[in-house]
Amino acid sequence: MNRLSNQPQVPLQKHKNNTDTYDIFPAFELEPTKIQTGYDALFDMIYTSRIIILDGYVGVDWNEISAAISDYFSQRGTAYKLINCADYYKPVDEIEKLTAPFLRGDDPVFGKKTDLDLKDYFRSDFLSEFDSQSQVTTIIYGCGASLCGIDGRLVYFDLPKNELQYRMRAGSITNLAIVEAKEPKQAYKHFFFVDWVICNKEKKRLLPQVDFIVDQQRSANPTWMSGEVFRAGLDAMSKSYFRVRPWFESGVWGGQWLSKNIPDLPQNEPNYAWSFEMIVPENGLVFSSSEMLLEVSFDWLMYRAGEKILGKAFNRFGDDFPIRFDFLDTFDGGNLSVQCHPTTAYAKQHFGEDFTQDETYYIMDTTPESHVYLGFHEDIDPEEFRNELEKSIAAKSTIDVEKFVQKLPSEKHGLYLIPNGTIHCSGTDNLVLEISATPYIYTFKIYDWQRLDLNGEPRPLNVDRAFENLDFSRKGQVVQDTLISKPEVIEAGDDWEKILLPTHPDHFYEVIRYEFDSEISILTAGQCHLLMLVEGESLELHTSSAQDLKFHFAETFAIPAATGSYTLKNLGSERAKVVISYVKDSAC
Question: Residues of 40-67 as b/e, b for ≥16 C-beta within 10 angstroms?
């Protein structure tokens, strides 16, 4: 088995019986018959070319691809030469020396984003023996194949990042140019800080040249389309709307709200802790044509049309999509770890990030007993707090968190502000919509309630890093005054209100909520809008560039800056509430 997960792959064809519920496989519709399937049909399109370049992302199954094209040419009795570009990678020990500075040794979680390029992985003799006069069809394949410098038909094999991780967990793939598979946590760190950065730079370079794009996640059954159609599809997204494919993960503190309220989710997981609603470094985009589905990673959209997507914010963020939406589900689950996130300067110096993990908790659902932990008590003694934490680690004993950290009631539709350096965590029985800056792995856990993860292992704690970043001035009444958003109606009509949910000055993004009975029209004003229906049944989106679309409760979607304006129509019987986030003009 080449993947380890209970979660389904994107199906070859879309069949959804109930169209009135949350869609776990949302797709952007193309014209009919633009997506094809199968290796043979793909190779039929390129076999007459003298030079064929099969490039692609780390984690792609090159053994399957090379076997498929060998079988194709052999069955036709056509002479060919097959060259694996991995044969020209530098030795593993040299690759490990190159990447070591970015992996930070035995640190179980964190590295620093690399400045290496894919060409740094190759020996200088890459294809030096290539005979440019040969009439035999030459096929060069593998991650980095196009760096051979030879013109040919270019096919790019892509892999969504969740599927990459499922293959990683199964031990069926290795990090780029590394022979043996690493332990999953170390492999993920290597992918995140090195492999993805390197491959993304190459992907951006190749986008204008790609002749065919292939979704390689389904063994022996890829879907593909022409590069021309692919680029046109990205262009259409950039001036209308997009919704990424969400994906779901269980966790030690995970709850049951998502499994109970999203009917299409597999019910064989112990819980669902997260939904990656729009954490774009890891999400995919699905295209549909004549019911055939093809998924690519989100990066392509920013590389093709970043300025149209972000508008005013592009000058600051470039290819980095700045805001994320995700769910944290603790219903019938547990508390999250007590934690904080790094300052901007710390994130840049230590991890290579240009901006940091400033968060908010928007409470989607709760109970009368639910709560969040946020900020310190007025009498906090940092040294006493640290001593208690260190004793807890040494003795494997619990501590009284509420002695140090404020425990606040969580209110439905309340917004709790978590700028960097703020101690916090969600308590049990919350469905949290986390509206945040996009960085998402830099969580410094300082207390985890003395529990083990789902594999029976302790989760790594980061007390030292946390104390280098904790802001002990966020305490007492300051928490009530500055970290709990105070809603303010800023516009209103006969059957609607626009409500500002003020964020902290450290947050570069705004959060607003529209409440309306019939419909509202909204200007993007040069910013990309992220939206979610947080109360109500469903709504209809109208833009001038796409057909009207229906979105359901709790689905996330985005309106690019270039769309200009859009209308939301309430399709339910009760008042609709829609949360929207975008970059503050002052932060561009």
Answer: eebbeebbebebbbbbbbbbbbbebbbe
374's enclosing H/E stretch is strand 371-376
**In the block, which residue shows the tokens 């290796």?**
39
Handedness of CA 26, 197, 4, 440 (dihedral sign): negative
Strand 153-158, strand 212-215: pairing? parallel
**Per-residue exposure over 21-39, b if at least 16 CB sit within 10 Å of its own CB, e if not:** bbbbbbbbebeeebbbbeb
The tokens for 20 are: 């009135």
Q: Which of 124-133, 175-184, 289-298, 534-543 has the lowest mean pLDDT?
A: 124-133
Complete edge-to-edge strand list for the sheet that includes strand 284-289 = 28-29, 284-289, 292-297
CA gap 170, 184 in Å, rounded:
9
The residue behind tokens 């690399």 is 114
pLDDT average, residue stretch 72-80: 95
pLDDT digits over 199-236, tens only?
Answer: 999 999 999 999 999 999 999 999 999 999 999 999 99
CB 118, CB 89: distance < 8 Å: no
Beta pairing class for 51-56 and 153-158: parallel
Q: How far apart are CA 320 and CA 299, in angstroms?
A: 9
487 has pLDDT over 90? yes
CA neighbor of 41 nearest in space, from 208, 256, 231, 225? 225
Closest CA relative to residue 34, chosen from 363, 289, 339, 254: 289
Question: In the numeric block, which tokens belong to residue 197?
Answer: 């950065």
Cα distances (Å, whole numbers) of residue 55 to 66, 86, 306: 11, 11, 23
Residue 498 above 80 pLDDT?
Answer: yes
- Per DSSP, the residues of 85-134 read GGGGBPPHHHHHHHHHHHHTTT-SS--------GGGGB-TTTTTT--TT-
Convert the pLDDT of each residue in 167-178 to its tens digit: 999 999 999 999
Q: How far apart are CA 418 and CA 575, in angstroms?
A: 29
pTM higher than the cut 0.70: yes
